[in-house]
Structures are given as C-alpha cells and as structure tokens.
Amino acid sequence: MSVILFVIFTKKFLKYTLKIKKSSVILLLLTLYGANYFFFERVLFFNELLSLIGFYFFLTYSFTKQGRFILPRNTIYRCVLAFILLGLIYAFVSLFLKTNWYYYFRNFSIVYSAFSFFIGYHLYTQQYYFFKKIRNKIYAYAGIALALRWPFLIDRNSYSFLLAIVQRSWKLFPLIMLMVGLGLYLLAYTSATVAMIMAAIAAMVFIRKYAYFKLLVVSLALSFIILFSLASPYLKLYATNRTLFFGDVEYVYSQHPLFQLDYNTSWRMILWYRTVVENFPQNLLGIGIGTPLLPYTEGATTQDTGNGTTDEYWSHVSGLHNTFITLFVRFGVLFPLIMLLIYRQVFREFYLYRSYYVKHRNDFSLFIGFVVISMVGLFNLLLDSPTLASVYWASLGFVARAIYERKYDM
C-alpha cells in the first residue's frame, strides 16, 4: 500500500522533473529516500545510489582538466574530506581485524555514505527551487501518513527533517505550523526524539546570541555527564548476568525508579557505559569496522527480536543507538574532533549571520533541517546505518554551501 501511494503521489511530478533537469531527479531521489526508507532504501538501495552520485560529483568538481585537485575554502567541506580519509584508513586497517566480509561491508556504509555530502554541496542552488515546488506535496503526504496512522509511510525521523527543510519562511505562522506538525506526530506516536527536535527548533528560534547558545549546550552536556556519573554504579550491574547479550538490563531497571521512566533511554545508557566507560582509554584508538561493538557468544540468540537474528548480528550492525558514540567507538578520538569543528562552524555561522540567512532565500531552514537530522542521531542509528545516512550528509552539504555563498556574497 505504501508503494502504491508513493507511485500515485509522485508520478505526475516525476514526469515533470524528467523533462526539466537531472538535478531535480536527484533531489527527488533524496526526498523519496528520506520520506520512506523502508522501501526506497531497504528494497531499492537509494542510499547506495545517492552515495554513488555524490562520488561522481566529487570527482567531477574536485579535479580540473589538468588533473589539479580543487579544495574550496570551506571548513565543513574540509572536515568532511577528513572524515572520509579517516574512514578509509580505518577501512584498510579493518581488513585485518574484521569478523567476516558481510559485517565489513555492512559497516563500510558509514564511509561511502559521506559522499552524499557533495550532492547537497553542488545542488545547493537547485534545492531551493525544488523544495519550493514540492512543499505542498510534502505537507499533504505527511498529513496522509498521520491521518491514516501508518508509521511505515513516513518515519518520525525523516518526517521531522522534511517538515523542517521545506519550511521557507521565518514568519510566525509557518513556524507555528511546523511545530504543530511535529506536535501532532508526538501525540500520535509518543516519540521522545520528536520532543527533543521540537526543543532544539525552539532554542534556535528564541535564543538570539551565539554566547547564550553555547552556554545552553555546555550546561546540557555537563548535566548529562553528572547524571551519567551518578547512574554508573547502577549501570555496571548489567554484568550480574553476562549470558545475555545486553546483560541483565531488567536488574538495572529495578535498582532505581528513574530507570523505569523510559526503558529505551536506560537501555541505551547501559550500552554507552559498556563501550565508553569500561573500554576507556583503549577506545580512544577505535575498533574499526566489521568488528563487534559488544562481546557475544557465537551462535547464541539471547534477544527476543522476533526475526531470529543472532547476538553476533546485533553486535556488528545494531549500533549503540547514538550514532556519534558508535562512530567514536569505531573511529576513535579523531571522529569527535572532526564533528566538533563541523558543529561549531554550523552554529557559529547561524547565530552570527542569522539575519542574512533569513533574508537570503530563507536559508535558515537548511540550518534547522540539519539540526533536526542531527538530533535524530542522539538516540538512533544515523551515520552508522544506510537508512538515513545520505539525508544527514546531503543536509550538511546544503549548509556548507550556504556558508560558502554567504562569505562570497558579503
């Protein structure tokens, strides 16, 4: 039913875009992939297609006819290249560390998906006109998905991103409608991720100065570190039953009422404790790709997943449900340093030149869209999974090019 609805919904527009520009078709692929990765990635492998297109863009725009390499004066662009290089180095080292080829190539999507960045970077101008044309179609599709209460039509993560990226006005009414749209999803499906996304958007709208935003981020980070430190004596009690892949999480939940408020968050904290705290400082170097995040017993299936997947599969593929921690564990301390440079550039640019981005094509929505998809990664798979990785990297590409154009324009 999902496929039929999508075909009907996009047939006319697809026919139209094919007559105009290839860039519109590429952006349509990105939109379809973001709206319904259940089909467009898991069946048609759109993430791999978009990564390949991004790689083509990288080769086309990075070398002159004389073979000289072109490196734009753009901090984010260079950080992405640094991440790709870091990933390739670890991919080579992992050839000697991997469990088997299957898990190696599953994890290798972390590296090649980053090439989707170049789609966003080089289709920056085209995306403005494209999203302007399909804005109402996105609203209609999202409304249908909510009205029918079919979560497989549109995921909460991509739903939030698409509503943000097509939001092209800084006026009060469109902003209210954006928050209403997210609020409706929150009421329909009770998603903590969407609640955090709404809080992040509110912070970007109402906080006016970069210094205040930094203070908020530092305060939240310190609060989490303190909370995590207080929780650590309880989290390590997972080891009372090591025969289970995740450990005795039920025993941990029973130790304090706060752990029972949200079992999903408590379970994630156990994973973060095991991989970040217990393995420190060895994890500063990273474990590579195709290697297990958590120890497992070969052939064992201790988790009631309903599909018979083994603990070995979960150890290699499921991630830590915080994409940034997962990549820190796999690529070591250089990864968070690269991410720190990227996010510092994004937020500093947004707050220092907010008025410019509001007036210039309303590029502020590109920043909001990127922040939204970043929030998804705090409690879900993102960069470590092909289901949404290209959305993240393409969104970052839009922002990076917007910053480049601002510097050139001013």
Rg over CA atoms: 21 Å
DSSP summary: helix tally:
20
Helix-strand string: HHHHHHHHHHHHHHHHHHHH
Sheet with the most strands? Answer: none
> Could you list the spans in which at least 5 consecutive residues all have pLDDT below 50?
none
> How many strands appear in the DSSP assignment?
0
Fraction of residues in H or I helices: 55-70%
SS class: mainly alpha
End-to-end gap: 49 Å
**What's the shape?**
globular
Average per-residue pLDDT, rounded, comes to: 86
% residues in beta strands:
under 5%
What is the secondary structure topology, with strand pairs?
Elements: H1 2-18, H2 22-35, H3 37-40, H4 46-62, H5 75-94, H6 101-112, H7 117-122, H8 124-148, H9 156-165, H10 172-189, H11 192-206, H12 210-235, H13 249-253, H14 263-277, H15 311-317, H16 323-331, H17 334-352, H18 354-359, H19 364-376, H20 389-409
Helix pairs in contact: 2-4, 5-6, 5-17, 8-9, 9-10, 9-19, 10-11, 11-19, 19-20
Notes on the structure:
With 410 residues, the chain is mainly alpha-helical. It has a domain of 214 residues. It has 20 helices and no strands. The longest helix is centred in the middle third of the chain and has 26 residues. The chain starts with a helix and ends with a helix.
